[in-house]
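User: I'm designing a mutation panel for DUF3140 domain-containing protein and want to avoid disrupting the core. Could you give me a predicted structure to guide residue selection? Please restate the sequence first so the numbering is unambiguous.

Assistant: Good idea. Sequence first, for numbering, then the predicted structure tokens:
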Amino acid sequence: MSEAAKLDRDAIWKDFHEAVNMTASAIEAHLATPESQSVGWTHDGEGEAVGHKEGRRLVEIKHKKKAELSDGDYAHMRKAVGYVHRHLAQGGPADDREHSRWRYSLMNWGHDPLKG
């Protein structure tokens, strides 16, 4: 692997662990809730929302050691970071952030905006 590719992976790893602030078990617990399953966009003909499916993939990634991560894993990590940053920039609702669709959607992607 080239030095540039290694640096890129290091940057993605760092960004991912800053953006995805939930543990694998916390993501899994959230994905099992009706709130998790009630948010997000669904492809025609599919029953599972995109974000819910992405959350399951994040759990797989979080269970891996850094040396076990593939190029596909790093691409998915980058995708998750982008999603979290875009949705945090929206600011969320002014009231009842705790029980908002905005929060549930972010949590599907591994980020709890209420977590310190």
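For picking mutation sites, this is relevant: The chain has one domain: 3-108. The longest helix spans residues 71-89.
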